[in-house]
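REVIEWER CHECKLIST
Item 1: Sequence provided? yes
Item 2: Single chain? yes
Item 3: Sequence as submitted:
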Amino acid sequence: MPFRTLTVAIVAALASPIAAAATAADARDLDTVLVTANRAESTLGDTIVPAQVIDRAEIERTQARDLPELLRGRAGIQIANQGGPGKLSSVFMRGSESDHVLVLVDGVRIGSATAGLASFQDIPVDQIERIEIVRGPRSSLYGSEAIGGVIQIFTRRNTGAVRPHARVGVGSHNLREASAGLGGRAGRGWFGVDAAFQRTDGINACRGRGPLNDDFGAGCFVDEPDRDGYRNRSFNLRGGVELADGLTLEGNALRADAFNEYDGSYGNEAENVQQAAGGKLTYAPSDVVRLTAQAGRSYDKSMTYQRNADAGTRTDFGHLDTRRDTGSLQADFTLAPTQALSLGFDWLSDNVESQTVYAVTQRDNFATFAEYQGRFGAHRLQASARYDDNEQFGGHGTGSIGWGMDLERGLRLNANVGTGFKAPTFNDLYYPGSESPDLKPERSKSANIGVAQYSDSWNWSFNVFESRIDDLIVFVYPPPDFIGTGMNIEEARIRGAELTFATTLAGFDLSTELSHVYPRDRSDSANNGNLLARRARNSGRLDIDRSLGDFRIGTTLRASSSRFDNATNTVRVAGHGTLDLRAAWAFNPDWTLEARATNVLDKDYETIAWYYQPGREYGLALRWSPTAR
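Item 4: Structure as written out by the authors:
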């Protein structure tokens, strides 16, 4: 299914707004509160930067079984996966690099301090309550990594009556999964506890090795035609209490232990741990002042093995543990009913523990930031600035300014400009044999212009943007040893557009998201003018759902155009499209039976050259969620 097929379907949906107006319900709750866009509470309707919220109801409606599946095809987001469930999944936002996305879990910064990536594949969807996605640079509020955008994941929580919930499921490739939890509020306190398990025999992840004359590092360099399984066990604990009027203390902890089989010449099994824990103390002595102190710690741990099935042996290749400690103090002031000011201080400490000896294993970062938000009649204004002082690369300032204007018929114009940066990782700087301690941070300048309309009939938005990224870090592999050396030599210019649309037409809930990016290499090298690797120029999805009494049916179409897998644009990965079907039957107020079929047309496709993606798969699940009585 080529990309144009999805485009035609979406255009057909967009061509029917007049017919939809008489019967449509509000497709987006504009009163939804989010905190990621401005580091302070604001409604989705008041936010002037491109943002999106995926709530628990949508997670259950789509029946997505992992986080990459849930995010795939969303506006501004592309996924590159190395061979199915549990395999390394890179997220590209707005055409920027995969390590240009800041990921938070309950306000705690996560991701490997050595590789610079968050393990999206190991964060279980059964532990997620909601996801906030902010597209475009937010370094002026969060510092390093937030060049392409910010994704914040909030774990399960229930502040209503104490209620349990549970789910069991089975599926293709011997998929087995189960989850259960209990949570709610009692008096001044609330609590929650959840556990989840998922296991699959998987598929053969990689089809072999890439020829060296195409691109060094292509493929997995081995032929292991076996199933590459995956197992994930996770646990989530949370709680909070109102110590006094206006004084609240709360905490969260998420741990996911994963075992992953893969095809590779350097190990083919790995044990991984993702852990994020944090606490927050909030004091609001009046309606005009709010003080917040927050601290957190995240772990990214991995142990790699090489298993020789024929000999029945396993070789330990060592462990790599990184820890990120964070702390923040923030004061929010309401200067007037339509004026707000936020001031804050952030601290970050990155630490590495590895059998591989790094020259430096710890660094601290201190930062101060300020943000102003105001509304003047039909006009909205947002401005923020931040200064980071890092003991490894020195000081770095960033800023952003945004403007919005409300027009008639629910229309709004938005414009934003901002700068961002990405600090070099420990692998960039100190990986043994390829040390490059003089690397500078990657820097970006971005602009976004958008128009949106919010009404009781439909909601839509259209954004165009451009980002210029300087001092991109690349590794050069001179022969004969192929030991990489990091260099700040690359420049890139990314232009793009995003369209989102949602409505209800003749009882069908329609939602579509389309993205176009033009990510060009602008460096002074032989690759000048080439497309950046692993980013398709066009991608999108179309979701259609319909309720029929106790039944609900739905479908998702995803499509992506072709992409190149290397910087020289000599390895092309073909475009693809997939069709998913789903159904749910609430045969009892407390019980729901779910069924799904993914990649129904059994499309053979790849998102990274040489790495397979699952074919047609089926799943069946039973969900128990007692309603309040």
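Item 5: Key structural point noted by reviewer: The CA atoms of residues 192 and 290 lie 25 Å apart.
Item 6: Recommendation: ____
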